[in-house]
Specification:
Helices cover about 40% and strands about 25% of the residues. The protein is of the alpha+beta class and about 325 residues long. It has two domains: about 5-240, PPM-type phosphatase domain (Phosphatase 2c, domain 1); about 255-325, no CATH class. It is globular, with a radius of gyration of 21 Å. It starts with 5 loop residues before the first strand and ends with a helix.
Length: about 325
């Protein structure tokens, strides 16, 4: 059984930065001895206290998932969660002397335990999963209304009818992730429900490099790559399932260390060839950048940076890099 790990981050969008508005996305993850969970809420820009509403429902979801594992797979779990969320919003509204409608947000949550999972979803975010064979699949797609930017919030009158619950056996699922609509704009395509391969890379990196390094990578990824593709706040929560195949391939510790050094270098200075490759893959072109670029380079030789420049040892590695850069 693999170590259970989870990571989450939220960054302020360019539109909110321009107006001095704080990030209104809130996300959290948790890990227990036999289970893991995530929760995410995207505060609605039209609601005056959206950030506080998002914080309230995420905190409420964390407590609900922790206390109610035994009943999560039952049909009544959806109604029980909804009543708990509404009470949390009512309490928050009372403490802030505002109306409940001022606290609106979308809501996403996933918990895995004992070979099963349950996902709850309201609004225009998206929930997905990663299978052991590397396939990325949409678990719950965004729900939008008839007009641009219209969706259902925790404060919508008909929200109970739109709160989804998806549950079932884990099977070969090895990770789940939840994205706010800002992150989904950059990483998910409605046509066919396709996710960017970058999500697979993040899951692999979390598994092989640990929570602290993965959290730093996720925040940098959202701040630089995702933020460049959307004006909205962007948040992403990722958890590894507490079960894993025994034959699962793991990266050599030395290779993982080299990977971390390379990513830190690219973040700090950039290298035109590799940055171009990475950006191409983040734009849905080509194979998985992890499998196509980083692992082969690690196998072929040492990765070092000298005098502010990136050098790849070995003629084979150099030829490989140039060939990939030209799309060969």
């Amino acid at each position: 059984m693999s170590e259970q790990r989870s990571v989450a981050a939220a960054v302020r969008g360019r539109a909110h930065e321009a107006t001095g508005t704080p990030c209104q996305d809130v996300c959290a993850v948790g890990v227990g001895e036999t289970r893991a969970w995530l929760a995410l809420a995207d505060g609605a820009g039209s609601c005056a206290q959206a950030l506080h509403g998002a914080r309230a429902v995420v905190a409420c979801a964390n407590a609900f998932l922790w206390r109610n594992r035994a009943r999560l797979g039952r049909p009544e779990a959806r109604q029980a969660l909804w009543e708990t969320l509404r009470q949390a919003l009512a309490d928050e509204a009372e403490s802030r002397a505002c109306a409940v409608k001022d606290l609106g947000s979308t809501f996403l949550a996933v918990q895995v335990w004992s070979g099963r999972f349950v996902a709850f979803h309201l609004g225009d975010g998206v929930i997905g999963c990663l299978h052991a064979d590397g396939t990325l699949e949409t678990v719950s797609a965004p729900e939008n209304g008839d007009f641009c930017n219209q969706t259902w919030l925790t404060t919508s009158a008909d929200a109970p009818a739109h709160l989804r619950m998806v549950e079932g056996p884990l099977g070969d699922i090895v990770a789940f992730f939840a994205l706010s609509d800002g992150a989904a704009e950059a990483l998910w395509r409605p046509e066919g429900g396709r996710f960017a391969p970058a999500l697979r890379i993040l899951a692999d990196y979390l598994r092989d490099s640990g929570t602290s390094a993965a959290r730093q990578l996720l925040r940098t990824f959202l701040s630089e790559d995702v933020r460049a593709r959307t004006d909205d706040d962007a948040s992403l929560a990722l958890l590894l399932c507490p079960t894993a195949r025994k034959d699962e391939k793991r990266i050599d510790p030395k290779a993982a260390k080299a990977m971390r050094k390379l990513i830190r270098f690219l973040q700090a200075r950039g290298a035109p060839c590799l940055r171009k490759l990475l950006e191409r893959h983040l734009h849905w072109e080509g194979a998985d950048v992890w499998q196509a670029v980083f692992l082969p380079l690690m196998r072929l030789g040492a990765l070092t940076h000298l005098g502010g420049q990136l050098y790849v040892a070995g003629a084979k590695a150099d030829a490989f890099l140039k060939g990939r850069d030209h799309g060969e």
